[in-house]
Amino acid sequence: MMLRLVGRFLLIALNLCSLMKSFVSQQDQVSSVSGAEGQRSDEKPSKTQQLRKVFKEYGAVGVSFHIGISLISLGMFYLAISSGLDVTALLCKLGFSESVVQSRMAAGTSTFVLAYAVHKLFAPLRISITLVSVPLIVRHLRKTGLFRAGPNRP
């Protein structure tokens, strides 16, 4: 029962990842057209650069959210692997290449190391969730008065 729930959660997470990627790419297209007097940037910033920008702009809220989602992710993967989920077959079924999966999962590794390796494979998903969620959370906190705008913000 638990393995089915974890499997379903992973499928939902992957669908969410594809939705987030399309949302982020639409936002990037809008910002590149409207920014810098209509000059279009051919070079798209990497997810890491985007994450650093979010951390710089939103501060503790961005860092706290990303650390929280990372800890939840690591805990879920540890629980799934310690429950006996066949991670290799699941990741291959989800579209990861077998060479990447096998390189991350050597025979005889501990449960935590295996959970951490799978957790690292899903880093783009966590970063995408952070990039989309933190501005929405900060906007909500500002509306409720729990978070003030910075000194250079209107």
From TrEMBL:
Keywords: Membrane, Signal, Transmembrane, Transmembrane helix. Residues 49-136 form the DUF1279 domain. InterPro entries: FAM210A/B-like, FAM210A/B-like_dom. Residues 1-25 form the signal peptide. PANTHER family: PROTEIN FAM210B, MITOCHONDRIAL. This is Family with sequence similarity 210 member B. The keyword Iron-sulfur does not apply. The chain crosses the membrane at residues 59-81. GO terms for cellular component: mitochondrion. The lineage of its organism: Eukaryota, Metazoa, Chordata, Craniata, Vertebrata.
